[in-house]
Protein 1
Amino acid sequence: MVSSRTNKGLSAMNESSDFHHTVHLDLKGAPPRVSYFAEIFPLFRQWGATSLLLEYEDMFPYQNDLKELAAEHAYSKDDIQRIQQLAEQNNLEVIPLVQTFGHFEFVLKHEKFQKLREVAAYPTSLCPTHPDALDTVKLMIDQILTLHPRSHRFHIGADEVYHIGFCERCKKTMASENLTNQQMFFVHIEKVVKYVKCKYNHLTVLMWDDMMRFCELALLKESKLGDIVEPMVWHYVTQFVLPNDIWDRYSKVFPNIWLASSFKGATSSSAYLTNIMYHVDNHLAWLSVINQEKHKFKKICGITVTGWQRFDHFAVLCELLPQALPSLAACLHVLKSGTFNSDIHLTVSKELEFEPTLPLIPDRTIFPKCKFPGSDIYLQMLDFLRFELDYNEYIHSDRRQTWMNDYNLQRGFLNPAHLQQLLDEALRFLPELTYLPYPDTLILFKCLWTH
């Protein structure tokens, strides 16, 4: 039984047709086939989504001077058009996102673009004073927007710029112009935003907020970004730890803001199963914030439900999209209704054909049946959870560590009485290991078994 958790912070806003429930699709890892979008976009709309934030990264078909940026399996131009057509058919506005400062790994990892690094050893942040930096960003923006002529909004990223003012050129610029790191950030962002606004004056520009989250009010006003950009305030925890005065400061500079929650990819960089209740609680926390702070702004434009595929370009995958669809469904229902209770839990369970109801926290003791696009992946991840937990319990058991540890195996110093029981227990893992795409793992296991 799910206890009722309620907050009506969005009730009035949901009556407005222009308050967005945006689904973020991070395509920098295990990007879906276009045919899969055709299956899930109708569900997004059914659950209350109004728009998509598409973060292509290296899945965009960059060309000419930027051709190195496109992955071998990048979408084609026809794919990009088809994705937008599918979105339009389901009344989902498409908002493309291009990183323009931080999280620039997919660009700076290439030898051709290493000169643009702020720190030569790290491919994370762009050097804003390099003569080719802004031109490269402009090319990326132009190629993206050329293939998105019907978009009304554009997101420039700009989160987690970990390295500013490190290179000698930046240090000299900052010294000669008396700039702080924060001001250096604003100078680059202003150039990017003004380029977009000048060339594509129909677009509203969005950006992540974290790089100005602790900025003093006077400096925020001095940045002159208030009239040309709408910040998207992201926070993915259940107990908020944002600065106490953040809404007062932002409201004095930005008349319009966006918010960002998460439905997956925000708890652990190596997680493979989504804790749905964690993300439901994150959304309920956001509803409380909206209820308390909405009067300070001209408009809270919407909330983006983020779903990260990796923590950065070089990280392993976390929480594949198909297995996280139940979490997305639950979170969008929370935004639509302002609450989460047994009725909503049952509704989501029925929509995804769960028998019994959808598990809200990963649990190896529950063996559900379900049917939705990608449900086989969801069920396989549950199988893997059971296997991993059982295997770890076996490996770390007192008996295994006492009588079949590395010392015993290397010296053949083994007690057959204990070893037989350990091997009998180990046999239950063999069928599962035969499905692993790593033959060395199976060979090692068989060697231990036949020792």
Protein 2
Amino acid sequence: DNADFTEYVNNLFADLLSADMVSLHAYVEHPKDFGINDYEITLGRYDLDNPDDTSDYTDIISTLKSFDRSTLSAKQQITLDELLMYMENELEYSDLYMFNTQLQTTTGIHVQLPLLFAEYTFAEKKDIDEYIELLCDVDGYFENMAAFEKLRADNGYFMEDTLADEVIES
């Protein structure tokens, strides 16, 4: 095994998973066990200042391509191939972000978030503290989402009126 590759992949896992607290909490009971020591307690945000920025993808792809395949184990080569394919696909379709919305009539985040909060597990005191912080983040989360939906609308990508009405009613 290539120790540098393993370290990079572990750090990438930690960085990607800690982008939003709900995912982090759902997948990892003790973040410190995975080297995740410093994370923001947030539901996540759209980057409204630089929505076209793809540097995260290009940086990851560049780093992955810098590893010499011949120094990787068979398992690491599979991991490399899968990560490259995933990141290259994300980069290839990154210009379609305006088609993305978290507001769908039956599966939108406005429907799922109460369920996510209801199923949130509490194993230790920090889980309660983080849960309360997440609850306090809901307004900011939806304000950011509304700003993104306005950006979509300003660019002609807002949902049809009938779907918008259904989302509002749900």
Protein 3
Amino acid sequence: MRTANNTPVKSIGKKKLSIRLKPRHKPIHTVTFEVFPELNHQMILGCNFLEETETTFNFQNKMTTLGNTAINMSTDKQKYATAAISCDKKVDTKAKCPIKITEIANAQPEIGHISNVTHQINMLDNEPIIQPPYRIPYDLIEDTKRELQLLEKQGIILKSNGGWATLAFSKRKKNGGIRLLNDFRLLNQKTEDDPFPSPNITDT
């Protein structure tokens, strides 16, 4: 199955639902919906839905009719009319997000990291990259050392005597802390591509 822009999508199943359009006295329709977990839209109405609800489109008058209900259409991108099925349970995401973020920050104040996964970087050749280090501003030296010691203590970084040396530097954060930065551009040029599909942000 493909979307309107010809993108292939895979259905994980079907679900038959009984729906009732606004207003409440309208008849109940039984429609079979396909489930597509990777789509961003909450719902896309297809031909079976339009046929069941006796929907008609009048592009000359820019009107859509669902049974006895008329909906005005607009070609203005800022004023698209939307025909939606109401949901009895609504979640105020904007109001809950700051609360959830605060809960996570309080529950795990330290830097989170995963220690049960091993990642391997395959190189195009074995010639090491050796770059001279950036100079760290004098007023950042002590804070940078403390940040490195903290990351080493938490097991996020390790000391190495290998033959590779890529650029790294530090910058002052707005809150006064230290942000460590790495310049891996040359390293990336010598790294084999390992394509992996990123999950949809709405699914994660």
Protein 4
Amino acid sequence: MSQNNEESNLVEPSSFVSNDKSFVDKHASIIVRGGIMTTGLLGLGIYLKTSPSFRRFKHVSQIPKIFYDKEITIKGIVKGITPTGKLIVEHLPLVKLSFVNSSKGITPINLNLAGIVLSDKGLNMITKDMNITNKQINFKVIKPTLGDKNCVDAEINIKRTPFTNINLSQLLVRKGFAKVLKPTDKDHVKALESNKSYSKLIDQLLLSEMVADKRGVGVWEKQSWVEGIQTTSKQTINSIKKSPLVEFGSFTGIILKDIGSAVFFILLVTYHTIAVSAIYTKETYNKLTKIITRTISRYNTLIKKQIEK
């Protein structure tokens, strides 16, 4: 009896294991497919969250290096402009998916116009005249902004018409509202030597600056000789006006003007007097001629009558 019990105890586990194996064998393909699908969906979710094509950048440090190297165009919406002319921009992903990019908790990034120094007129132009707030822009990141880890220097393009874009830095420089950074700026020179996209942008800006200088617009505006005289100090002008020589010349001018007016009046009266006298002389001469003619005619008539008698 004891042997039979032991055999039965040995048989039961083997049956249980065989049942387990049969369950795995029956559902092996489903388990494998489920695992593959779960892993794939998890990987896809991670890719969509981390891929630059689907990701929304909330800080300039999140922008991958490839965007700098390949000069990849990024889209964004201007949310504001700082007092120093930096643009506060909400980044728009290259491919927008609502279930990946939530509209909640969006943090804009800061963009600085690369390679230029804005004038007060330039700042006024982008903050008030151009009305670019809440408008979409395209930009290319060039390099981190020196001394500001929360900002990046960028080449920014804005829409002027539905079909044309214009480089904002070039527009400001061409109007004379901004200047290209000077060669004395060490960071500027270093970036020119190591950054091709920055060097190319500066070449374009220098050409625009030459145009503005030749046209004499904005910060390159040149004074005319009249404006140069007008900018002379009032004190100097007043002292010149009150000098004895100027006062004597002014007094002499007034006298000469009065004498000239009097002479002109006398000549005018004399002319009219002579003209009227000439007219009356002519009329008197004509009348006298007629009288003499009649007298001669009558005299001749009398002589003829006497001869006939």
